[in-house]
Amino acid sequence: MVVVMQERATDEQVQRVIAQLVEMGFDVHRSTGALRTVIGAVGGRQGDPALIEVLDGVKEVLRITEPYKLASRTFKPENTVVGIGDLRIGGDEVIVMAGPCSAETEEQVEATTAAVKRAGAKVLRGGAFKPRSSPYSFQGLGEEGLRLLRSAADRHNLKLVSEIMDLSQLDLMEKYADILQVGARNMQNFTLLRELGRCRTPVLLKRGISATIEEWLLSAEYILAGGNMNVMLCERGIRTFESYTRNTLDISAIPVVQKLSHLPILVDPSHGTGRRDKVTPMARAAVAAGADGLLIEVHSDPDHARSDGAQSLFPSQFDRLMAELRIIAPAIGRSICLEPVARRGWSR
Amino acid sequence: MVVVMQERATDEQVQRVIAQLVEMGFDVHRSTGALRTVIGAVGGRQGDPALIEVLDGVKEVLRITEPYKLASRTFKPENTVVGIGDLRIGGDEVIVMAGPCSAETEEQVEATTAAVKRAGAKVLRGGAFKPRSSPYSFQGLGEEGLRLLRSAADRHNLKLVSEIMDLSQLDLMEKYADILQVGARNMQNFTLLRELGRCRTPVLLKRGISATIEEWLLSAEYILAGGNMNVMLCERGIRTFESYTRNTLDISAIPVVQKLSHLPILVDPSHGTGRRDKVTPMARAAVAAGADGLLIEVHSDPDHARSDGAQSLFPSQFDRLMAELRIIAPAIGRSICLEPVARRGWSR
Amino acid sequence: MVVVMQERATDEQVQRVIAQLVEMGFDVHRSTGALRTVIGAVGGRQGDPALIEVLDGVKEVLRITEPYKLASRTFKPENTVVGIGDLRIGGDEVIVMAGPCSAETEEQVEATTAAVKRAGAKVLRGGAFKPRSSPYSFQGLGEEGLRLLRSAADRHNLKLVSEIMDLSQLDLMEKYADILQVGARNMQNFTLLRELGRCRTPVLLKRGISATIEEWLLSAEYILAGGNMNVMLCERGIRTFESYTRNTLDISAIPVVQKLSHLPILVDPSHGTGRRDKVTPMARAAVAAGADGLLIEVHSDPDHARSDGAQSLFPSQFDRLMAELRIIAPAIGRSICLEPVARRGWSR
Amino acid sequence: MVVVMQERATDEQVQRVIAQLVEMGFDVHRSTGALRTVIGAVGGRQGDPALIEVLDGVKEVLRITEPYKLASRTFKPENTVVGIGDLRIGGDEVIVMAGPCSAETEEQVEATTAAVKRAGAKVLRGGAFKPRSSPYSFQGLGEEGLRLLRSAADRHNLKLVSEIMDLSQLDLMEKYADILQVGARNMQNFTLLRELGRCRTPVLLKRGISATIEEWLLSAEYILAGGNMNVMLCERGIRTFESYTRNTLDISAIPVVQKLSHLPILVDPSHGTGRRDKVTPMARAAVAAGADGLLIEVHSDPDHARSDGAQSLFPSQFDRLMAELRIIAPAIGRSICLEPVARRGWSR
Question: pTM above the 0.90 mark?
Answer without folding.
Answer: no
